[in-house]
Amino acid sequence: xxxxxxxxxxxxxxxxxxxxxxxxxxxxxxxxxxxxxxxxxxxxxxxxxxxxxxxxxxxxxxxxxxxxxxxxxxxxxxxxxxxxxxxxxxxxxxxxxxxxxxxxxxxxxxxxxxxxxxxxxxxxxxxxxxxxxxxxxxxxxxxxxxxxxxxxxxxxxxxxxxxxxxxxxxxxxxxxxxxxxxxxxxxxxxxxxxxxxxxxxxxxxxxxxxxxxxxxxxxxxxxxxxxxxxxxxxxxxxxxxxxxxxxxxxxxxxxxxxxx
Length: 260
Prior knowledge:
The chain is of the alpha+beta class. The chain contains eight helices and eleven strands. Strand 4 and strand 5 (87-97) form a beta hairpin. Helix 2 crosses helix 4. The longest helix is centred in the middle third of the chain and has 19 residues, at 119-137. It is elongated and about 60 Å long.
């Protein structure tokens, strides 16, 4: 659960929703659940400005929690927000460690907040659903996280989605800008990263090792931070999400400070 809390921020941004982590209170036969963790999206409206960690809810307030815990399946529906009156749409995902169910992750978004779903939104939600299924299968969070890198890229910095053969499925506008700064101007959906001139070593390594990979890529005067999160369906690699951030200006300032 600690690894999930340490790595779930991109999931909140991908789903444009708040994420809460619940666990049943010991000795109460799963009638009450306590909030162990909370993260808000930077890409959308939060339903919970207040800190909810430590808040206890019962099965009457959140029947979806007990249904998810009892069945071990993903369930969703509309309900009332915690300690409030507004309606929220809640998706419950069982969190497993190995074969053991240890917690429940909820994605919560105000039902009154409607976001027009363009290609970016549809892609992000699809990627979130893939990671949610990995959580339910026990394959996310990963068994080992990559070493933290300074100014690690976020979803808002740029997202590239590839399939299991490293073929480009989607690139967000910010990611396209980063590709242009790297001198990559000719690309199309379905082309492999190596074909468009993007080094696919990190992506292939992440999918092969079933672990995230982080590195800094330099192309001419351009410096790009890259973080690769592999995606799986059962035992098979089905693709990866590449988070990219242009840190060229930051590195230029670093070099100026060093020279001084």
